[in-house]
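Suppose a colleague, Dr. K., hands you the sequence of a protein chain of 474 amino acids and asks what its three-dimensional shape might be. Before reaching for any lab equipment, you can write down a predicted structure in token form. Begin with the sequence itself:
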Amino acid sequence: MKYEATIGLETHVMQKTNTKMFCSCKYEYGAEPNTHVCPTCLGYPGALPVMNEKAIELICKAGLLLGCEINPYSKWDRKNYFYPDMAKNYQITQADEPLCLGGEVTVEVEGEMKTFTLERIHQEENAAKNTHVAGASLVDYNRAGTALMEIVSDPCMSSASDALAYMTHVKQVMQYGGISNCDQEKGQMRSDVNVSVKPVGQKELGAKVEIKNMNSFAFIQDAIEYEIDRQISVLESGGTVVQETRGYNPDRGETFTQRTKENAHDYRYFPEPDLMPVKVSKEQVEQWRSELPEMPAQRRVRYVEQLGLPEYDAGVLTASMDVSDWFEETMKHTKNAKAVSNFIMGEMLRLLSEQGLSIADSKVTPQKLAEIIALIDAKAISTGGGKQIFETIFNEGGDPAAIMEAKGLAQVSDDSALEGWADEAIANNPKPVEEYKAGNPASINFLMGQVMKASRGKANPGAVMQMLKQKLDA
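The predicted structure, expressed as tokens, is then:
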């Protein structure tokens, strides 16, 4: 029997707000534990919440970017549970009247365009961070109460590849839209993954298994693939898949049971009495819509149509907002888009990967790359010399022109110097000379290589080729 999987994602995204969702405390990743707290986010009796207007704006803009309908009326609810990460013993969230309804994501998955639909996006507050050590659990309430939105997809994906493409698109939209940095290592983007398996053709979905708190795309992919195989194995052996919540152990590459359906929480939702409902006018929605920035797909089209870049280059450059912004800044200092693209895709991304850095850490600034390209365009240095200068600045810093002089990378175009190297190459290599004159034009490339070798790469290749042809064709 053949089986098919059904997958849905609940993705939690921390918004870029200066203060928490319902109080004025700031949030600073890595700050000394329990220093950015107040009576409200610590759940003291009598402390009242106040809505963060910026968070409402950001979630609505996220909804617009993902094709959602902005709900003109939404309200707040209390999700009751007793756990150390929520000092109030309840979380303020939106149970049945969320801010954003519907929506969809269209992405390419293994060469095929697919559309995945959303159920909703709702606003809530974040929980504290628990750290479990030998014999104890530590709680840092700095994160408690920060603005958090949950993007809930429909159960509309069928493979780990679908989920990965969906997540990648959502992350890009959140970053380009200024909604969130989506730094997964800092817990700014994490997902609960729902997976079920059923025989092909069966309408009724199989038992849903939820894999909690996944903060890595690689882990999400591995967990989904493992869980699909596990559920199929259970069914093929005559067993029954149990609806449950599972965790994922990346060291073992396996999911494991956390709690079953019978022990699942009953959150006892009820309306939040301390907050008024949220009403969003059509005029406000249109104002936010007019403020939406350029998205990756729009940048890709612009790079191809206006800058003349290949589609492949445009795709690489826009895959990361930091890289794309760096490219944009460089283009303010040069008009040679292809040269900028080549340096970023080649030298920059290679060196960043080798040294585990982000592009913001690079000593090569957009202005310095533009200066290197200007030297190449002026034929002052070769492309290879430009790459040497780039790597030197990346590792040590410095000025392109000064490094060119210090390393003796200036390109030679003087006819007298070139003529000497060309005459030497022709005199010492009679065979390729004869082959060229006999009608094999490719033989000149060997002579070209000899000139470049003799000049230690300093000879201007174009000028060398022209001089060799003049001498051989005479």
